[in-house]
Amino acid sequence: MTKRKRLPNHIAIIMDGNGRWARQRGFMRVRGHEEGVKSVREITTECAKKHIGQLTLYAFSNENWKRSKTEVNFLMRMLKKYLIEERKTIRDNDIILKTIGRIEALPKDVQKELSISMEESKNNTGMILCLALNYGGRTEIVDATKGLARDVKKGIVKLQDIDDATFKSYMYTSDMSDPDLLIRTGGEMRVSNFLLWEVSYAELWFTSVYWPEFKKKQLEDALSDYAKRERRFGGLIE
Question: Where is the active site (predicted)?
């Protein structure tokens, strides 16, 4: 098992490969998403048991609206169902649910269930589970820039005082730590507009395993690899 001192505090995951997993088995793409929810439950529970500080999941990007209306509608229905059914998992594991993204563009019924789940979990004290919904890294930076520009115009912030910390305070993730480990499943080796500002110094771990097959063993493999790495943050290890 990975030693506690070598575990990342914040893990971010790009859950890729649901559709390809389904196609390889002769199923509709939506079957892959259904199976992917099982992996979400297992990985979330396992991270909570390991006392990981935060788990951020790329659940729905703002580019995903380009998919077929049938698939998008299914994903929204599945998200609503997940939020309702997983309240027990969140409660039993003392998880705090949060979200990032342009949530106001999600269907109203999804927003309602999301709000209920976050309200019910806000006093928990365990791991933070953050769902990136209608999220894009570039969009986040644009929204942060707009917010900062408004405050500069109002005289709340002085131009000469803007630094990394100031800009960070306008990001969706202003109250969160940056990811230590970014995992991507499905065989692709890119970050796909996910947490572009926040993963500047994250360790990256890619696997060809599709998300529906990513379970406790694969998580342990990623954590074991992470434990062997030396994090320099641009400096040198003496």
Answer: 16, 64 (proton acceptor)
- To the question of whether residue 190 is assigned a binding role by annotation, the answer is yes
Is 64 marked active-site? yes
Catalytic, out of 9, 64, 93, 193: 64
pLDDT 10s digits, 21-32: 999 999 999 999
What is the DSSP secondary-structure string of the chain?
Answer: ---GGGS-SEEEEE---HHHHHHHTT--HHHHHHHHHHHHHHHHHHHHHTT-SEEEEEEEETTGGGS-HHHHHHHHHHHHHHHHHTHHHHHHTTPEEEEES-GGGS-HHHHHHHHHHHHHHTT--S-EEEEEEEE-HHHHHHHHHHHHHHHHHHTSS-GGG--HHHHHTTSTTTTSPPPSEEEE-SS--S-TTSSTTTTTT-EEEE-SS-GGG--HHHHHHHHHHHHT----TTS---
Catalytic residue (choose from 16, 93, 134, 180): 16
CATH of domain 6-136+179-227: 3.40.1180.10
Q: 36 among the known binding-site residues?
A: no
Whether pTM > 0.70 for this model: the answer is yes
Q: What is the pLDDT of residues 116-154, one digit of tens each?
A: 999 999 999 999 999 999 999 999 999 999 999 999 999
Domain ranges of the chain: 6-136+179-227
26 marked ligand binding residue:
no
